[in-house]
Amino acid sequence: MNAEIITIGDELVTGFRVDTNCAFICRQLTSAGYIINFTTSVGDSIESMEEAFRLAMRRASLVVTTGGLGPTDDDITKKAIVKTFKRNLIFHEDILSEIKERYARRGIEMPAINQNQALLPQGARFFPNKTGSAVGICIAEQGKIFVALPGVPREMEQIVQDELIPYLLSLKTTQNISSTTLKTTGIVESRLAELIAPGLKLEQGVKLAYLPGYSGVNLRIIARADTPEEAQAKCNALATEIAKKCDKYIFGRDDDTLEGIVGQLLLDNDKTLSVAESCTAGQLGMTITSVSGASRYFVGGGIVYANEAKIERLGVDPEIIEKDGAVSEECALAMAEGARQAYGSSYALSVTGIAGPDGGTEDKPVGTTWIGLASAHSSIAKKYNFGTERNSNRIRASYAALELLRREILDIK
Amino acid sequence: MNAEIITIGDELVTGFRVDTNCAFICRQLTSAGYIINFTTSVGDSIESMEEAFRLAMRRASLVVTTGGLGPTDDDITKKAIVKTFKRNLIFHEDILSEIKERYARRGIEMPAINQNQALLPQGARFFPNKTGSAVGICIAEQGKIFVALPGVPREMEQIVQDELIPYLLSLKTTQNISSTTLKTTGIVESRLAELIAPGLKLEQGVKLAYLPGYSGVNLRIIARADTPEEAQAKCNALATEIAKKCDKYIFGRDDDTLEGIVGQLLLDNDKTLSVAESCTAGQLGMTITSVSGASRYFVGGGIVYANEAKIERLGVDPEIIEKDGAVSEECALAMAEGARQAYGSSYALSVTGIAGPDGGTEDKPVGTTWIGLASAHSSIAKKYNFGTERNSNRIRASYAALELLRREILDIK
Predict the structure, then answer these.
(1) Which SS3 state, helix, strand or coil, does residue A326 take?
(2) Number of A:B CB contacts under 8 A?
(3) What's the whole-model pTM score?
(4) Which of A24, A317, B267, B347 is deepest in the core (most CB within 10 A)?
(5) What is the pLDDT of residues A16-29, one digit of tens each?
C-alpha cells in the first residue's frame, strides 16, 4: 500500500521552518506497513494545494496532509479539500460543543472565529484532537483515504498515534516492515562498501543504505515481508551477514552514539576520563558530555590552545614543542599523560592538529592530527589525516579520539 | 522565477532522518529571489526520481536536488538524471585527479569505486566540492536549470553558497534583489518585534523576516526593485531605520558571527581570552576557535566538569561549592578569576549551569546558568534561565558568554 505525505505552509517552502512533521508521519506509516515514495511540501495557495492533493490521490492509496486547519484566514486547507473533492461543508454541532467546552475549561469564552472549525466536508469522518481545536478530517473515496491533520506537532502526533494508526490498522493492509541501523566508525564509505559488497545478495524486499556522517557511516537495513516475523528475520539475517564482514568497525546499533557507547564502557569498567585539547579546543569535551549523566565518568580537561598553556597547564616539556612541534606524536603523548595526571583520571585523550584553513606545511598539511591516549599501563598516539575544512576536522578528530578509546577498552586491534 | 527542491533518499521517506537540507536550500533560493511552491522528497527509486524530476522541470525554471551522488550502489541519482535528460555519462579526468588528491592528502589510496564520481552527464557543468568527493552537477536545458547536489549537509551547503548562488546570480533574473541581515543577540524575538514594529512601514517590494536561532535573532531584509541601485537603497533605508530602534542588540551583519566579532574586538584591543567551562564542557572554547586565527587571542582554558577539577585546577574555594553550590554567582566568579590567573589572559569567561535534562531543583531549575567574566579591573557574573533542552542550553550559554564580553569591551550597558 502506497502512502504520500503533504505538509502545508509558506514557512516550509521558504525554509523558515524545518519540517519535522513529515518525518514523524513517515515513520509511523512505514511501521504500519505503508510504502512512501513521495512526500511534498506546498505553500499556502489553494491552487498549489489542489494540484498536490490530486497528484497524490492518483499515485497513492493513502494521503496524509498537515497544516492549514487553524481558524485564521491563512488556514485554507479546508477550502482546497472542498475544491479537490467537490464536497460541501457541513456544520457539526458535536464538534462545536467540544471546542466550546475546551475554552470553558480554560475560563475563556470561545472566539466566534472558531465556529469555522466545526465545519467538515460532507461525508467526512473526524479524528478528535485532545490538545487543540482543529480536528483531523478523514475522507474515504473510491477505495482511497485522504486525511488532513493540524500542523501543530503535538496535536498532529496525538491524532496520528491515538486515532489515525488504529483506524488504518483496522483496515486490511498487506505488508510489514522491520529495520535496523548498524553504526560504523573509522572507515570511509567506499572502503566499507569494498568489505561488504562482495558476495552480498539482498533478498527480495530488503534494502541496504550507506549513510555517511561525521561520526562514521551508518548502514541502514529495511526489510519488508508478509508477516512481522518474516520481516524481522530478513533484517536480522542481513545485519548478521554484514557484521561478519566488518565487525570491528561497528560500534553500535540504531540509537547508539559513539559517545554514549564509550561512556557506557567507562561506567561498566569503573573508569574515568579527562581530555587535553589543542585544535579541537573543547569539541571533544562537548561531545563526551552531550550524554546526560556524563559526570559519572568525565572529570574535565584542559583546552591548551597556546603552547604556553600546554607547557604550564599540562607540563608538556618545552623541548618537545621546540624539537618536534606541537603537532607531533611526542606532544600528543605528553598532553595525554599530563591531563591524566592533572585531572586524576583513569584515561586521558589528547588531540593536537592543524585544523586549517591555514598553518599547514609540506610535512604537516592541514588536517594532520595526532591523537594520544594515556592509561595506567601505557600511552599510545596515532596520526590521522583529515580534510581541509576546519570545523569538520575538529568533529572528525573528536570521534576518532573516542574510537581510539573504545578500541583500547575492548582490546580491538 | 519558480524553483523546486527535490530531496532524495529512503531515509527521508521512511522518516529515519528529518530533512534539514530542504529548508536550507529554500532559504538560500528565497533570498536569491526565487519563489518556491513545491518541495518533494523521493525514495531511492530511479522511476520515482525520474517522475519527480520531470514534474518539477515542467513546473519550475530551476530544480535543485540533493542526495544519491555518493559512490555506493544505493546512490542512483545520476542514473535517474541520465534517464530523465537522455544524456550519456562522460568521464572527467580533472574530477578524478581532484578526488585522488583528496585521498592522497589523507594518506589513503582512493578506493576504485570512487571512479564513478568522475562521470558526469554529457554537457553538464560541475560545481566543485571542497569537503567531499561528490561534485555538484548542473544541466541547462530549454531555458531551465537542473542542479544535483550531494546530500551530506556540509558539502551541500558549501556548494550552494560558494557555487550555486553565485552562478544563479550571474544569470539574468527579471528583478533585482538586494538583501542584508542584521544580527542581534541577547533579546527574544517577540521583545525585538515590540521594539521594531511600532511605526515601521515597509516600502513596496521590501520584506522583513525575524529568524530566531541559537546565537540570537537574525533580521533579514529583502528588497526587490527595477534596478540594483534602487533595491540596494530600499534595503539600506530599512536597515538604518531598524538599527536606530535596537542598536545595542545588533552585533553585526550578513556573514558576521558573534565569535568573529568578539575575536576582532580582542585583536583590536590587543587582549587575550581564556575560559572556564563546567556545563558547556568545551562548547565555548570550540565556538571561540571556530574562527580561523583564533590562536592570536585565545589562550585556552579549563573544562572543569567535576567539582574537584574546579577546586584543583582553577583554585575555586571548596567552601564556595559547599555553601553556594557549583551553579552560583560566587562559583562563576571564582572560576573566571581562576582561569584568568591560570592561563594568564586579559579576560576569562566562565560558565556553570544545569544543562539538564536532570539535576534541576525548585531553586535552580534546569536551564539555570551563571556566566562570569573576569578582567584586570573587575569581575562580574550574570544569571540566565535557558530552556530544558541540554544541547541547546549549552549553545545558548556559549553565545550569552560571548555577548557579555562584547558588551564589556564596548562598554554597552
Answers:
(1) coil
(2) 288
(3) 0.75
(4) B347
(5) 788 999 999 998 89
